[in-house]
Amino acid sequence: MEYMKAFAIKFAIVSVVIYSIFGVFLNASMGNLFWLSLLITGALFVISDLLLLPRIGTVWTTILDFGFIYLLLYLSVGLFIQETPAPILASLASAYFIACSEPLFHAYVQERVLETTTEDSIPFELQTEFAEDDSMDTILDQDKHSKHTD
In this predicted model, what pLDDT tens digit does every residue of 90-106 receive, in sequence order? Predict the structure, then answer.
């Protein structure tokens, strides 16, 4: 269930950016933008968030995401959006805005979706240690008592 929720969040992020940039500047249809968003989200979620993120960390995954998003958008614009004069700038802008949101999404995925098996992530209960220390009055009384018996 967490995977589906994370996928829906990622789809919302990608869709907003793609609908905003490609819909306004390249005058693309809503159906084509939906399929483009679904393709980008699916590829990013599987490759970036599930495979790369646990292995190389947030910073490198975000850097690779930028290049991967740009490449996917630039190559797939010809499939989904016909007669596009300049997809380079729209693809770069979309890749930039999506990559800006990736560190926050990666934190969510690492905390809620990915299961870690390290010992640091095993939940444990903290227990308070109680000691039987004597108060100062008790120590002084014992000291007086031991001097009288000597």
Answer: 899 999 999 999 999 99
Residue the block writes with tokens 């950016």: 17
What the block records as the tokens of 120 is 């640091």
Domain boundaries, the chain: 2-118
The closest alpha carbon to 68, from 85, 43, 87, belongs to 43
What's the rounded Cα separation, in Å, for the pair 26 and 149?
Answer: 100
- What is the rounded radius of gyration, in angstroms, for the C-alpha atoms of the chain? 29
pLDDT score of 11 more than 70: yes
| Angle, in degrees to the nearest 10, between helices 30-43 and 58-80 | 150
DSSP per residue over 84-135, as a string? -S-HHHHHHHHHHHHHHHHHHHHHHIIIIISPP-SGGGS----------PPP
